[in-house]
Design a protein that fits this description.
alpha+beta, eight-stranded antiparallel β-sheet, three-stranded antiparallel β-sheet, 17 strands, about 40% helix
C-alpha cells in the first residue's frame, strides 16, 4: 500500500461517526402482542412508529439480509446497510473483508416468543446451496445459519435429540408412541445397551422419529386425542412431567399438530436471563417462549416440520438431521448450555 493510501485510510477512520440504523420488524403470529413485546418497544423507539396493541411483534432484524434489511441514515436519503457498506467496505475492518467479503457476515435479531415456533433445523452450506437453487422462493439465500441465542428473560426451548436412556424412558411412559412403534420393537429398543449400541440406537431413533413425522393428518389427530384424554385424566391423580405438560401446551397452541408428539423426542431446556445456547446446522430445535437476542450467519433458511402455519418440508428435514442423541449439561462458569455427545 502506498503511503498516501495509508494516510487516506487513517483519515477516513478518524472521521467516522456512529451511523443510525433503521431496522426491520417481523410480525409473525407467534410473537408477543403489543407493548408486552420487547421487539415492539425496540421497534417503536427505532422507527418512531406507534405500537399496535393487537399485533404480534416477533423479530427485530439488524443486518443486510434482503428479507429484512436495515437502512443507514447517512445523508438526506436512507440507504440500505448493504449498499452503505459496499461504498466503503473498510468499515467492516480488514480481517472481516479478507475473510467474508464486502458484506456484513452476520444477522442480529431480538426475538419475542409468545407461543412456540416451528420444529425446525437449518441447513449446512452445501444443502443450503441445493435448496436455494431448487426452491428460491422458499429458501431465499444459499448460506448456512448456525446461531446462538442469549436469553433476555426466562426462555424455553427444545433442542437436540434425547439420550438413549431418555428414549427408553419415553417408550415406557408414552404408550401412544410405544403403540406406534409396536410392542416387539419397543421391547427390543428397551434392551439396547447404552455404551455398546449407540449406533443401533441412532438407527432406531431415526426410524421412530421419521415414522411419527410422516403420519397422516388423521392418524396424528387420533394419536394426539388419545394422548390428551389420558393426560387430562392422569393429571387429576398425579403431577404431570414437564414433557407431558409441554405436549398439552403445544397442542393447545397448534391443535392436532405433530409437533406436540415430536417434543417428546427433543431435549427441553429452560434458560435464565443471561444464559445462552448455540445451535449448529442440521440440529432439530424449537423455541417455546420468552425473549432473547440471537446472532447467526446472514441467512433466513429454515426447514420446518411442525408447530407452524408456514410451509412444511418434512422429508428434507428428516433427511438432513444428524440424529445425535445428547445429554445437556449446564456450565455455570460460561453461562451456557453444553451438549455432551
Amino acid at each position: 500500500m502506498e503511503p498516501w493510501d495509508k494516510n487516506m485510510k487513517k483519515k477516513r477512520k478518524r472521521s467516522r461517526r456512529p451511523v443510525r440504523l433503521r431496522c426491520s420488524v417481523m410480525n409473525y403470529d407467534w410473537g408477543i402482542v403489543g407493548r408486552h413485546s420487547k421487539v415492539a418497544r425496540l421497534f417503536a423507539l427505532n422507527s418512531g412508529s406507534d405500537i399496535d396493541p393487537a399485533k404480534p411483534y416477533a423479530e427485530f432484524w439488524i443486518g443486510t439480509h434482503e428479507s429484512g434489511p436495515s437502512y443507514a441514515d447517512s445523508g438526506s436519503e436512507p440507504v440500505s446497510l448493504k449498499a452503505w457498506i459496499a461504498q466503503d467496505p473498510s468499515v467492516l475492518g480488514d480481517k472481516v473483508v479478507d475473510k467474508w467479503g464486502a458484506d456484513l457476515p452476520f444477522l442480529f435479531k431480538v426475538l419475542s416468543v409468545g407461543k412456540a415456533l416451528s420444529i425446525q433445523a437449518h441447513p449446512d452450506k452445501e444443502l443450503a446451496r441445493v435448496l436455494h437453487k431448487l426452491h428460491p422462493n422458499v429458501y431465499r439465500d444459499d448460506n448456512h445459519k448456525p446461531e446462538m441465542a442469549l436469553a433476555l428473560t426466562e426462555f424455553e426451548a427444545l433442542c437436540g435429540f434425547i439420550s438413549v436412556k431418555e428414549l427408553k424412558d419415553m417408550l415406557s411412559s408414552v404408550p401412544e408412541i410405544a403403540e406406534l412403534v409396536g410392542v416387539g420393537n419397543a421391547e427390543r429398543i428397551l434392551l439396547v445397551n447404552e455404551q455398546h449400541e449407540n449406533g443401533k440406537s441412532k438407527t432406531d431413533l431415526e426410524s421412530i422419529f421419521s415414522r411419527v413425522m410422516l403420519l397422516s393428518k388423521d392418524t396424528i389427530s387420533e394419536m394426539i386425542s388419545k394422548l390428551k384424554r389420558r393426560l387430562n385424566l392422569e393429571k387429576k391423580k398425579r403431577q404431570l412431567t414437564v414433557k407431558e405438560q409441554l405436549a398439552l401446551r403445544l397442542e393447545s397452541q397448534y391443535p392436532a399438530d405433530v409437533g406436540a408428539i415430536a417434543a417428546f423426542f427433543l431435549n427441553y431446556v429452560k434458560l435464565n436471563r443471561g444464559e445462552a445456547i448455540s445451535l449448529g446446522p442440521n440440529e432439530p430445535h424449537a423455541y417455546i417462549s420468552g425473549e432473547c437476542i440471537e446472532c447467526m450467519a446472514t441467512s433466513d433458511n429454515v426447514v420446518r416440520a411442525g408447530l407452524t402455519s408456514k410451509p412444511l418440508d418434512v422429508q428434507t428435514l428428516l433427511s438432513m438431521l444428524k440424529y445425535r442423541q445428547v445429554t445437556i449439561k449446564f456450565d455455570s462458569r460460561l453461562s451456557r448450555l453444553s451438549f455432551l455427545f
